User: What shape does this take?
Amino acid sequence: MKLFIFPVAPNPTRVRLYLAEKCEGGATLDVEDLLDRVNEQLADGRPMLMGDAASIADRTLAAALQFGRMGQVEIPASHEHIARWDRTFRQRASARQVLIM
Assistant: This one.
């Protein structure tokens, strides 16, 4: 799946990125490639993306996966390390309060 990225804020110091499936002139973002990279990073068995403690990177990935769940998009079976990370992250008390289980 390819998504397109383009800035939507007029102020370049506060550029927000908007993801859409179709956008002329935007840069492409290969989601499969990103998932592959994250899966490889988690292959060493670390509990969270940056080590032992949850970081903003973990929360960002959790939010992305949550949006996927809302759209009935599942983690591909080939990304077993992301699936393990997702199960671990969603067991956290703070995650159980806000995420679809």
